[in-house]
Amino acid sequence: MTTTQNPPAAVAGEAHTTTKPTAPEKSRVRSDRAEAWRRRAPLMPALIFLIIVTQVPFLLTIWYSLRSRNLLRPEGEQFVGLSNYGDIFLDSTFRQAALNSVLITFGCVIVAMLLGLGLALLLDRKFFGRGIVRTLLITPFLIMPVAGALLWSISMFNPTYGLVNWLIGLVGISPVDWTSEYPMFSVIVALVWQWTPFMMLLLLAGLQSQARDALEAASVDGASAWQTFRYITLPHLRFYLELSVLLGAIYVVNTFDHIYLMTAGGPGTASANLPFYIYQRAFLGFDIGQSAAMGVVTVIATIALALLALRLIFKSINAKEQS
Amino acid sequence: MSLTRSRPPKDDAQRRGIAPEKKPKLTKAERKQMRRGGWLDAFSRQNLADTLLTGYLPIIVALIVIVLPLAWMVSSSFKPPSEIVTLNPTLLPQDPTAGNYSSVVDRVPLLTMFGNSIYVTVVGSSIKVLLAVTTAYALVFIKVPGRNFIFLGILVALMVPPEVSMLPNYLTITGLGGRDTLWGIILPGLGTAFGTFLLRQHFMALPKEMFEAAELDGAGHFRKLFQIAAPVSIPAIATVGLVTVVNEWNSFLWPLVITGSAEKMTLPVGLNLLQSVETQAGSYGILMAGAVIVIAPMLVIFAALQKYIVAGLTQGSVK
């Protein structure tokens, strides 16, 4: 795991290190330094630029989160410490948005993963027209999220002329105003539709990397299809299942387009998630300090999730390298 | 669940020649079946009902659920308003019309937006990929002090929700005079943590011997990168390129906040604008036409490059 090693030579002035190099290390490094810098100089601008565009905005967010700043009152800017953080935890809308984020993320990821697993198992066999079926099943993943959200909110969930209400009308259920009465459910349905193909592709890749001889051995030994699935396929897929949940969660937790276009966070703030609420506070409420604080909280929560994902990824990379 | 293998174990073993001694003589039909390949097994008589129930039926249901919304979108885009505002909708338009498409062009400057989207996607993605390649190379082959911390920082950036850096980016870009300009759309998104991560993992796996000969010749880093590392990494670079192009094309939130006038909007923002001017139920054919126009180019590209994309999704993470 490369990222946790101490750097060979941490030089003072490096923006990211807090480790102070010891004196002997410094002098040893200095002798080779001029030549090394000359050789690496041409590639440095790209590296520095990348650091700036990926890191500086985040540092700025932390800075803004410690200040009271509202674009409508430009003169009132001042350092307020952690009071923005106190305010947002007292804000019931923020807590609701955080809860919605969790519900949307897990609801979407788990349902999409189960459906994706089912589809991947179906597609992991030879049958007539498999190529075209697979292409068709992938399609929702290729749809621009804005267009997908529009498609669901308008032509599927429209209370009067939507297809869903027409279909349930066939079995005698009276029409439902989906995006107003069940906003979270509507958003999750649209997201599941969009994300199932991603899960399916990942799990299909996992299924197809199975060692065929293990499966053959199982069938020679007379294992039933369920036994084969339970004791050979599922343990093999474990890594892929974990990966699809984590990658899916990292993407879905940032969902903005669907909420903006389908429910606009409404009714009220019933379906606002964190990204949408941050957007609302920053660009409709112009409250820079608080929305920055919310952003920092979101990042910390996401990083906790991400570290889990990284450990998993590195574990597999290391396992591959060792074998 | 009998989904994993529909063939009975005996067939499978025979077909792969594992237990030929059990039944040395195959009938003509069986041999023919072997030659024709696996999927015909599913049509043997005892399997037919089983196959239909466990294989084709779920696939057909899944196809309907997944594809119907899309088919409905395309069909609606050709329907006149009278066929949309009806309580007895039909799958196919009875009186197909291209009127919705011309309405889209009337309502919003679609061609300009298309041009903006293409410009932002092409310029943004090119710079992004170039930066990702050079940065990944630097992180692997150049002993930059603290490079592991830089890499860790990039990984963290990969996980940071975009709406968090959006706020400082908005203030910075507005301060630089980039509001409502195309470069203002492109600039903050130029660092791709995903691409850098994937390419770094790829470069790490390259054999070091490849570079030794070049080093003896006195090749600098640039020659080593563009004449050795990059050419052997074309598939990985193509993957990063494709993912970048798709993200850039689909990007909505940042262009939404940084643009104000229709002439500078990209297609997703334009679609949002179209939705806000067309609010009547009868005009949803126009919105669907807009959606079709926006989706079509990506579908065409994907259809052509499918296998790279499928590989790319799993590469890097599952290598």
TrEMBL record, chain A:
Pfam families referenced in this protein's UniProt entry, alphabetically: BPD_transp_1
Residue stretches making up the ABC transmembrane type-1 domain: 98-309
Biological processes annotated in GO: transmembrane transport
The entry's keywords: Cell membrane, Membrane, Transmembrane, Transmembrane helix, Transport
Localization per record: Cell membrane
Start-end of Basic and acidic residues biased regions: 23-33
Residues covered by region (Disordered): 1-33
GO CC, one annotated term: plasma membrane
Entry-linked CDD domains: TM_PBP2
Topological category with respect to the lipid bilayer: Multi-pass membrane protein
Broad class of the protein's primary localization: membrane
Gene3D superfamilies tied to this protein: MetI-like
Transmembrane regions listed in the UniProt entry: 43-66, 102-123, 135-157, 184-205, 239-261, 292-314
PROSITE patterns reported for this sequence: ABC_TM1 (PS50928)
Family: Belongs to the binding-protein-dependent transport system permease family.
PANTHER family: BLR7065 PROTEIN, INTEGRAL MEMBRANE SUGAR TRANSPORT PROTEIN
Protein name as catalogued: Carbohydrate ABC transporter membrane protein 1 (CUT1 family)
From TrEMBL, chain B:
Cellular localization per UniProt: Cell membrane
CDD domains in the cross-refs: TM_PBP2
An example Gene Ontology CC term for this record: plasma membrane
Any one Gene Ontology BP term: transmembrane transport
Residues annotated as domain ABC transmembrane type-1: 114-305
Top-level taxon of the source organism: Bacteria
Membrane-traversing stretches: 53-74, 118-142, 149-170, 182-199, 225-246, 281-305
Species for this entry: Nesterenkonia sandarakina
Family the entry assigns: Belongs to the binding-protein-dependent transport system permease family.
Name of this chain's protein: Carbohydrate ABC transporter membrane protein 2 (CUT1 family)
Biased segments, Basic and acidic residues type: 8-32
Region of interest: Disordered: 1-33
PANTHER family membership: ABC TRANSPORTER PERMEASE PROTEIN MG189-RELATED-RELATED, SN-GLYCEROL-3-PHOSPHATE TRANSPORT INTEGRAL MEMBRANE PROTEIN ABC TRANSPORTER UGPE-RELATED
UniProt KW keywords: Cell membrane, Membrane, Transmembrane, Transmembrane helix, Transport
A Pfam family that the UniProt record links to this protein: BPD_transp_1
Membrane topology summary: Multi-pass membrane protein
